[in-house]
Specification:
Length: 178
């Protein structure tokens, strides 16, 4: 998960398919601003399919737009993204999302977020947070929970949604659910 700007793009061959046809990819050269989660090495290139029809992501080049990008890292300075990966302009993120990237999300790395697609839905263990934006907000993947909450681990090992601009207080972390 990185914050980055795309500075250039070019079409490259990335091998052949099972029939011997070349596989085309778009190679974005990027300027990484911050690594939130990933390898110790900076990401230099992001690869994606050449169009959205084959699950490619289009990034604005020129280095003006900043993006939050979650993809698959190869660990060698290369990353791959598809339509299924999170790619958002930095300016479109809520203040809570920006703050959580820097201070809060790492507190939830051991938690699982379970999607609720229709009501009723339940968690199967205490280390889960139930994400209900899709079911409660008419198939919205960028709803209230996504924009304003973080799933974090508490001192009793359970996970819970936390909302707030300040880091969670010890009292919140020490709460035990009945």
């Amino acid at each position: 998960v990185i914050r980055a700007k795309a500075v250039s793009a070019k079409e490259v061959n990335s091998g052949n398919d099972t029939y011997g046809n070349p596989i085309k990819r778009i190679q974005y050269e990027i300027k990484q601003i911050k690594m939130f989660k990933g390898p110790d090495k900076d990401i230099e290139f992001i690869y994606t399919a050449p169009s959205t029809a084959v699950c490619g992501r289009l990034l604005d080049t020129g280095g003006k737009k900043e993006y939050l990008i979650a993809g698959k890292s190869e660990g060698n300075g290369k990353m791959h993204i598809t339509l299924c990966d999170l790619v958002a302009t930095w300016d479109s993120l809520s203040p809570t999302q920006k703050k959580s990237l820097n201070q809060r999300y790492q507190m939830g790395c051991e938690c699982k977020i379970s999607r609720c697609l229709s009501i009723p839905c339940f968690v199967s263990s205490s280390d889960e947070c139930l994400w209900t934006d899709w079911a409660m907000e008419k198939n919205n993947v960028d709803g209230r929970q996504a924009k304003h909450y973080a799933c974090i681990k508490r001192s009793d090992g359970s996970c819970a949604w936390y909302r707030g601009m300040a880091p969670p207080k010890q009292e919140f972390l020490d709460i035990e659910d009945p």
